[in-house]
Design a protein that fits this description.
With 128 residues, the protein is mainly β. It is built from no helices and 11 strands.
Length: 128
Amino acid sequence: QVQLVESGGGLVQAGGSLRLSCTASGRAFRDYPMAWFRQAPGKERESVAAISWSGFSIYSIDSSKGRFTITRDFAKNTVDLKINSLRPKDTAVYFCAISGRCYRIEHPPTNQREYTYWGQGTQVTVSS
């Protein structure tokens, strides 16, 4: 049984940083993309960052400013999200996700429908 467990969320002041971590168990996902999404109250879930199976192709919602950094550890079956310069608008529940269908595609998808497995989410609250 596949299970994804997120950790690292919490309450942080604006300008601070957080590292979210997601550990997958139940099978190996070396050949599939991994991603982080978030959902703020009253808003739709949106893609925050995604990383390809190889780790060479990365998407970030804020690529020009570099506030979000996604990394994966193949040996540990984990995917992390580092968020810098946090803002109140970053407040949301953050979910990690793994695609079980996009085998070795070059660029990681950002559409949540492409992701098969999801964690329960971890709350990030940024105070002003």
